[in-house]
Design brief:
Structural class: alpha/beta
Shape: globular
Number of domains: 2
Strand order of the largest sheet: 1-4-8-7
Radius of gyration: 23 Å
Number of strands: 8
Helix content: 40-55%
Largest sheet: 4 strands, mixed
Order of helices and strands: EEHHEHEEEEEHHHHHHH
Distance between the termini: 33 Å
Number of helices: 10
Length: about 290
């Protein structure tokens, strides 16, 4: 993919240099049990001037970010990312900008305004609107804060474990997650969630598969529109995306993990479905070509 020396997005929240384990200052609140244990001690301290000073200092320290009740401080300095990881971060920012422009145009053509999501880059773990994000969760979209969370180490694992590498493989993954943001803005996620509450697990899983396949299709749609606008695709890019979609199909992952697949438990779709819907989006190039709910 041709991407260097091109415009980057301003919607990247880079947390890789400090691993934030809570969303606000002061860290996590002490538990009720801890408070009950400390209350008599605090009460005695408040009875003396020295004790009052100790309590005051402790309170100030807590609200400035030091939390003795947390197993780790709210922010932990991390080693500087490698040159390769820095290159990946720039790539993600560039692809995100392409995605913003393409979806902005599509929404405008349909008489709407595209609200750009954030992409949070982190290492290990961080906190967000959907709770704690951990690297072993893989990239995901959080509707609560309209953000995509990515530990860049995921792409190395994708190559090592599934032989699904290449820069456009990463572009496909990001475009898929942003596809969920499009679904969120369109009200699709809300409607599916409501429908899932009225059916059993099997049918609920089937609905979730349709959501994921539509996001795959949206990724293909983006690739088609971006190629028309930026002419950024190189030979082999689409194959990288198709290979990645196939590598992370539910049937492939389940067979790798346990030797067999259970279709009723699929939540993202089979390898053939995932690569097939990406191709439909790329070849169709319209929202109408991505209706997985028909």
């Amino acid at each position: 993919m041709i991407w260097k020396d091109r415009e980057q997005s301003s919607n990247v929240d880079d947390r890789r240099y400090s691993n934030t384990s809570s969303s606000g200052g002061g860290g996590s609140m002490p538990s009720l049990g801890t408070m009950m244990f400390l209350f008599p001690i605090i009460k005695r301290l408040l009875g003396t001037k020295l004790g009052m000073g100790v309590v005051a200092i402790g309170a100030v320290a807590y609200f400035m970010g030091f939390n003795p009740f947390s197993s780790s401080s709210s922010s932990q300095s991390l080693s500087k990312p490698s040159a390769q990881e820095e290159e990946q971060a720039k790539f993600i920012s560039t692809v995100l900008r392409d995605i913003e422009i393409v979806w902005g145009d599509i929404f405008k053509a349909h008489g709407s305004v595209y609200k750009e999501p954030k992409v949070v880059l982190y290492r290990g773990n961080t906190m967000g609107g959907c709770g704690e994000a951990k690297s072993d969760m893989g990239p995901f979209y959080c509707p609560a804060d309209e953000s995509v969370y990515i530990d860049l180490g995921f792409f190395d694992e994708l190559q090592k474990k599934h032989n699904a590498g290449g820069d456009f493989a990463a572009a496909y993954v990001l475009a898929h997650e942003i596809g969920h943001h499009v679904q969120n803005r369109a009200g699709t996620l809300r409607k599916v969630h409501a429908a899932q509450g009225k059916v059993g697990e099997k049918d609920g899983n089937a609905l979730q598969v349709r959501v994921e396949l539509q996001a795959d299709c949206y990724a293909g749609l983006w690739a088609a529109q971006a190629q028309k606008r930026f002419n950024m695709l190189e030979e082999g890019d689409i194959d990288e995306a198709l290979n990645t979609a196939s590598a992370i199909g539910d049937d492939t992952l389940q067979k790798e993990a346990q030797g067999y697949a259970i279709p009723d438990s699929f939540t993202h779709g089979s390898s053939a479905e995932r690569s097939g819907w990406f191709r439909k989006g790329f070849e169709g190039g319209t929202l109408e070509s991505c209706d997985t709910f028909r």
